[in-house]
C-alpha cells in the first residue's frame, strides 16, 4: 500500500498534476493500492472528482476515499491559503498531519517542496508509520533563486498568497526557513528523488540526503505514437506585411469546436497555462519572425494576472510590424481535446523560463511531434539540436524543420527513440528499488 501526498492532482491540467497522476496511475496499474492525499480546491475554486467511495481510517481519523481508477484513490483535504494579513495556510492542516503520521503503509511518497504537503510533514518524518518514506522533487528553482522580492515572480498563484507563519516571519522569509528545515530533515527520508542530476538544487541538497536517485517524468508505453512525417515543405518564401488572414486573433469561446476544425490542417502548438514564466511571448515573437504561414495555437487552462491580454496586445503589435498571421488563444480545453491537439500538431513550441522537466515536451514526443524549446531544465538532454535561445533562433529553426521534410522526419525518428527511455513502466522500477 502506498500513500502519496501532492498539492496539485487530477483533474488539474498543470505539469505537477499531470506528472503525479501519471506516476500514481502507473503504480496502481502495477497492482499497488495507492491513496493520494491532495487538496479539494485550486486557486480558490473547487475541484470535482467522482467515483466509488469508501472510508479509510488512520489513527482516530476517518476519511472518505474516492476511487478515480482501479487501485487509485483520492483523499481530499480542505487546505488553502489564508487571509493575506495572517500569512498562514488554513483548513485541515492538523488533520492532514495526523492522518499522514498514523497511516500504516509500505511506502509514503511526498511530492515536491514549496507546498503544504511537504512543509507540514518534515518534522513528523521520524514518527510516520510508513515502512519507507521518500521525497519526489519536481524542480527547486525558487529554493535556489527565490528572495522575498523575487518569490512573487517565481511561484504559482497559490504560493504567492502564502504568507509567513509567525515562526517563519522570525526567521526573515520563507525560503531561508525552508532551506534550514530541509538541511535538518532530509536525512529522515529513505530516499530523495530528483528529476535529473542537473535539477536546480541537486548539488545543494545532496549532502543532506541519506540516499539520492533520479526519478524523471514519463509517459505510458501504450500511448507512444509513431514519429510524424512531413510530406512537403510548409514554409512560405514570400512574407507580405500587408496580408491578412480571417480571424487572426481571438480567445475561443467554444474551444472544442475550434479544436475539431484545426485538426484537419497543419499548425504549430504551444500548451502551457497562461503564466509569464511560460514564455508564450517568446513563442509568439519567434513565430512572427519565421516564414511559415500555418496557424499557431496556444492552449492554457489557467491564467496568471494579465498574461493573456498582454499576449493579445503583443500579437496586434506584431501584426502591424510583420503582417497578420493566424493565431488562436484557446482556454479551458478538456484533457481529451488537448491530447488531440498534440496528436495532430505539426511542430511544438515551448519557451519556459524556469521548469526543471517540462511535461509538455514529453507529451509532444509521445505523439511523435518534433519540438523547439528554450534551454530549460533537462530539455537539452532530450535533443540538444532543438534548443533555442532567442526568438530569432526559434524562427530560423521553425523554417529549417518545416522547410526540409528529410530533416523534419529524421528529427521525429530520433525523438521517437528517445521517448522509449521515459516510460512509466521503466520509471516505477526505480521506486521499487527503495
Write a structural description.
There is one protein chain. The chain is of the alpha/beta class. The chain folds into two domains: 2-215, 3-Layer(aba) Sandwich (Rossmann fold); 222-422, Glycogen Phosphorylase B (Rossmann fold, 3-Layer(aba) Sandwich). The chain has 18 helices and 19 strands. The chain has helices spanning 15-29, 93-102, 116-119, 141-145, 151-154, 157-160, 166-170, 174-185, 202-205, 255-262, 280-289, 307-322, 335-344, 359-366, 379-382, 391-403, 405-419, 424-432; strands spanning 2-5, 34-39, 41-42, 45-46, 52-58, 61-69, 72-77, 79-81, 89-91, 107-111, 132-136, 191-194, 212-214, 268-271, 296-300, 327-331, 347-350, 371-374, 387-388. A nine-stranded mixed β-sheet has the order 5-6-7-2-1-10-11-12-13. Strand 3 and strand 4 form a beta hairpin. The longest helix has 16 residues, at 307-322. It starts with a strand and ends with a helix. InterPro entries: Glyco_trans_1. It holds the Pfam family Glycos_transf_1. This is Glycosyl transferase family 1 domain-containing protein.
Enumerate the spans where pLDDT stays under 50 for 5 or more consecutive residues. Answer: 147-172, 237-249
Distance between the termini: 14 Å
Q: Please tally the β strands and state the result.
A: 19
Average of per-residue pLDDT values: 88
Number of helices: 18
Topology:
Layout lengths: L1 E4 L9 H15 L4 E6 L1 E2 L2 E2 L5 E7 L2 E9 L2 E6 L1 E3 L7 E3 L1 H10 L4 E5 L4 H4 L12 E5 L4 H5 L5 H4 L2 H4 L5 H5 L3 H12 L5 E4 L7 H4 L6 E3 L40 H8 L5 E4 L8 H10 L6 E5 L6 H16 L4 E5 L3 H10 L2 E4 L8 H8 L4 E4 L4 H4 L4 E2 L2 H13 L1 H15 L4 H9 L2
Parallel strand pairs: 1-2, 1-10, 2-7, 10-11, 11-12, 12-13, 14-15, 14-17, 15-16, 17-18, 18-19
Antiparallel strand pairs: 3-4, 5-6, 6-7, 8-9
InterPro entries: Glyco_trans_1 (IPR001296)
Pfam families: Glycos_transf_1
Protein name: Glycosyl transferase family 1 domain-containing protein
Amino acid at each position: 500500500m502506498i500513500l502519496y501526498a501532492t498539492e496539485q492532482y487530477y483533474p488539474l491540467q498543470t505539469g505537477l498534476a499531470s506528472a503525479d497522476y501519471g506516476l500514481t496511475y502507473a503504480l496502481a496499474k502495477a497492482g499497488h493500492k495507492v491513496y493520494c492525499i491532495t487538496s479539494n480546491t485550486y486557486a480558490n475554486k473547487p475541484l470535482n472528482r467522482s467515483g466509488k467511495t469508501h472510508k479509510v481510517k488512520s489513527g482516530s481519523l476517518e476519511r472518505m476515499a474516492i476511487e478515480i481508477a482501479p487501485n487509485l484513490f483520492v483523499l481530499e483535504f480542505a487546505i488553502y491559503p489564508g487571509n493575506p494579513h495572517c500569512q498562514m495556510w488554513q483548513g485541515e492542516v492538523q488533520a492532514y498531519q495526523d492522518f499522514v503520521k498514523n497511516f500504516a503503509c509500505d511506502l509514503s511518497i511526498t511530492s515536491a517542496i514549496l507546498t503544504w504537503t511537504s512543509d507540514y510533514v518534515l518534522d513528523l518524518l521520524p514518527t510516520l508509520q510508513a515502512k519507507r518514506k521518500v521525497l519526489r522533487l519536481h524542480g527547486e528553482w525558487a529554493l535556489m533563486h527565490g528572495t522575498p522580492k523575487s518569490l512573487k515572480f517565481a511561484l504559482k498563484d497559490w504560493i504567492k498568497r502564502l504568507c509567513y507563519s509567525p515562526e517563519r516571519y522570525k526567521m526573515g522569509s520563507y525560503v531561508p526557513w525552508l532551506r534550514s528545515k530541509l538541511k535538518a530533515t532530509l536525512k529522515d527520508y529513505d530516499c530523495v528523488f530528483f528529476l535529473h542530476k542537473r535539477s536546480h538544487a541537486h548539488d545543494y541538497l545532496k549532502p543532506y540526503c541519506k540516499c539520492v536517485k533520479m526519478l524523471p517524468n514519463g509517459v505510458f508505453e501504450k500511448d507512444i505514437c509513431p514519429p510524424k512525417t512531413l510530406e512537403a515543405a510548409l514554409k512560405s518564401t514570400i512574407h507580405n506585411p500587408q496580408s491578412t488572414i480571417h480571424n487572426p486573433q481571438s480567445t475561443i469561446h467554444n474551444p472544442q469546436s475550434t479544436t475539431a476544425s484545426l485538426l484537419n490542417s497543419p499548425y504549430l502548438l504551444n500548451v502551457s497555462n497562461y503564466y509569464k514564466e511560460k514564455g508564450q511571448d517568446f513563442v509568439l515573437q519567434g513565430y512572427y519572425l519565421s516564414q511559415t504561414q500555418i496557424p499557431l495555437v496556444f492552449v492554457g487552462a489557467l491564467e496568471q494576472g494579465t498574461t493573456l491580454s498582454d499576449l493579445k496586445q503583443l500579437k496586434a503589435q506584431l501584426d502591424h510590424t510583420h503582417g497578420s498571421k493566424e493565431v488562436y488563444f484557446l482556454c479551458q480545453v478538456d484533457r481529451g481535446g488537448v491530447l488531440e491537439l498534440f496528436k495532430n500538431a505539426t511542430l511544438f513550441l515551448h519557451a519556459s523560463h524556469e521548469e526543471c522537466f517540462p511535461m509538455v515536451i514529453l507529451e509532444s514526443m509521445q505523439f511523435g511531434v518534433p519540438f523547439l524549446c528554450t534551454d530549460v531544465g533537462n530539455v537539452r538532454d532530450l535533443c540538444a539540436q532543438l534548443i533555442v535561445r532567442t526568438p530569432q533562433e526559434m524562427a530560423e529553426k521553425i523554417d529549417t524543420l518545416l522547410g526540409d521534410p528529410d530533416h523534419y522526419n529524421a528529427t521525429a525518428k530520433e525523438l521517437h527513440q528517445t521517448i522509449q527511455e521515459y516510460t512509466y513502466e521503466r520509471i516505477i522500477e526505480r521506486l521499487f528499488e527503495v
